[in-house]
User: Fold these one by one.
Assistant:
Number 1:
Amino acid sequence: MARYTEAKCRLCKREGTKLFLKGDRCYTDKCAYERRAYPPGMHGRIRKKPSDYAIQLREKQKVRRMYGLLEGQFRKYFKIADSKKGVTGANLLILLERRLDNVIYRMGFANSRNQARQLVRHGHFILNGRRVNIPSILVREGDVIEVREKSKKIPVIQEAQEVIARRGLPGWIEVDEKAFKGTIKSLPTREDITFPINEQLIVELYSK
């Protein structure tokens, strides 16, 4: 599968906001976005009024990059969200939040979604008693996620748990840190997603 292999901090600069793609580093003075909060390239500081299309595109790219998805994957989630009852934009964000790799990141078992995705693919987690290696699985209410016994001593998982206090746990998740176990208390709602996102712009972009 194709994946982005360039510097992740360039993505934050391009979107004009922190996407927290490098875990705990994004909360420190080492964050590249803090030093140069403008788009990369020789024309990065030139200000020009963006078109409506450009604003919509940047919002879509921001969310897509934040969750680490390819365009085809993101469009697929949009089609699913559009087919569901309710507000399409809110449905889209809730679907993205329910991805297993995102949930593991939210639980504090990984420093970033990218790291969580890699850990899942390597089979370090158990979902409802069964070992899983598919990051795109959508969790449901009542699901229990555990770190495999052999994986509890992995340094990146232990380090992630030490810094989860910086991010905080969303209300729809419950975590037993000592047991390396998390439970989905309820499905997330739009109000649980506090990152500044204007999902209506994404709906307008895909509706053209």
Number 2:
Amino acid sequence: MRRLNKKKALNLVNELDAFPKIPESYIETSTSGGTVSIIAFTTIALLSIMEFFVYQDTWMKYDYEVDKDFASKLRINLDITVSMKCNYVGADVLDLAETMVAASEGLKYEPTVFELSTRQKMWQRTLQKIRKKVQEEHSLQDLLFKSAFRGLPTALPPREDKLSHPHDACRIHGHLYVNKVAGNFHITVGKAIPHPRGHAHMAALVSHDVYNFSHRIDHYSFGEPIPGIINPLDGTEKIAIDHNQMFQYFVTIVPTKLNTYKFSAETHQYSVTERERVINHAAGSHGVSGIFMKYDISSLMVTVTEQHMPFGQFLVRLCGIIGGIFSTTGMLHGFVGFFVDVICCRFKLGAYKPKTELYQQNYTANKTRKSVETRG
């Protein structure tokens, strides 16, 4: 009984088959058709492999929204070397609310030598090249986002040689927490002192001859540091041409949420413009010698999310490739065959030659073959 029911079910399935079946004896094969079939299957294989690589790849999607978090603190990470001794310079932050954050709260002053060793110079040149490429090719930034935690740290490597001369510079490194408003981080002559009427540095105690604000920025970022991310100011080096020189960096910070398949982080991207000038009061160029980094925070937040092609979409695209190539090659083969038939019919070529000419050609060929055999 089960076998009978199974046989009825198979018959029912056969009757429901809506695709016409052509007996193999009705199909005429040809060399051109076989060639087209080989080309079609090769193209399908190549495009399917390429589509699989596209399916494996991911891309970054950027969404924008208003940043509503104003109560939290902003973290500033820095590693700057100034070509002056540590007892001559002071660093601190002053924001729009006239709130001063002293460098003693998170920054360290470390005596060092301004000139880099051979390995450190190679590191700096490599970092500058990568930073330049990131600025030119913006797609590299997405690659850095996807591989951030797998990247190498961007900190300056330690010296491999011994110092041959005494310390002539000061390395200021560490981090600060400031209010999430526009502010000014600066390094200038003299240590900062609290003042009820404003902001002051003890510059009068430092001789003008020791002023030298040549500096190197090994790292400068905002928010939680992410290894492998190249920031716009990393690797920057400026040489002062005058004792009284001001270096200004105008930074625009954009809060960023980064979500990939491997990690999530809240960080900050930024763009920067630079300006430097010599302070000369007699010529109308007023100001204070030093390094000034004026930052402002954007009201927009960028959410960067790593996305992947859905498996269903991959199957649809794969079916489209296979079906499209089959249909296209079949249409092209039919059109080319029709065009060849028209030309052969018009000029009496191939199978469209008159029978008398075909008979004459066959007769001549047979006669030539017989004469060759007789001579042999």
Number 3:
Amino acid sequence: MSHHYFDNASTTKVDSRVLEVMLPYFTEFYGNASSNHDFGKISKNAIDKARVQVSELINANENEVIFTSGATESINFALKGFVESNFEKGNHIITVKTEHKAVLATCEYLETKGIEVTYLNVDKEGLISLSELQNAIRPDTFLISVMYANNETGVLQSINEIGNIAKDNGITFFCDATQAVGKIKVDVEADHIDMLCFSGHKVNGPKGIGILFKKQKIELTPLIHGGGQEMGLRAGTYNTPLIVGLGKACEIAKNEFESNNDTIESRSKLLLQELKSIKGASIIGNESSKVENIIDVILPGLDSNIFISKVNDFALSNGSACTSQIIESSHVLKAMGLIESECNQSIRISFNKDVSEGSIKLLIENIKAKLKNM
């Protein structure tokens, strides 16, 4: 088992305080939140509280938060649900070539249904051109989908400017903020975001729970028909323990934002300094526009697949956890102009406040030793 965990972009450890608040809803307060008795009301009240905790983290109204199984479901729900419910408003979506596969695969599916999709390029630093976005807008453009922070490089897009462009053109703006929430201050009102998603397991909450924020004016076709839960948009019995856990994780992320990020910033500076001491090492993405906790680096001479599988004491990644089991070059890095050999020499290092300076130095020692023996 890896002793040094550097794969927080794929998933995080559940905070002990999150687990503590979840446990009673498995054993003691197990009522169905849709039932009209005291057991049910206890669960319903806990869900209502969690909805407020989530909304406060992203500056939304609690009535605009829909609980889902995670960001992948939320993405499918937002894109498919919007298209089906708003087909009379347009037929054109704008997104980006470096989006998460959940967005790209959903857009490809929608293309088979007659929707036209423009996939914006990024520059070598992973950023889109706002002028290219503006020029891509057509009279029938009705949805823009751009992720906040890239899951492989940590690069942050200019979300506020994109939100303003969407608003000025009367276009709905959806944002996958899975890697941004808890790492930077996400504000759906200030950034004119109409729909947004993230997963609990990226913010030290449980797996299997996430949210779709949707402004009340936005119409979506229900994802699951049935008992009418989640404003009639996602039927099914509430998973109260996971919802409670997500709410607590969001509360902690909000309350401890400053202290957590001070620690992450100092660890990031140390890691970058150590990586740059390695001859030929090259940081991927715009260093001035990225989340601090994700660093993607090219290490010439290193076969990342072999290194990651052999360095047993460290949990690392060579890209998105959704695709890293498949040995193929990252679509994100390819879109940024990297060639095959560079993709195969890259590793993603992602961490949180719990990583120690000692772990960082041990990682660098292992990388240097491996390169020396190549």
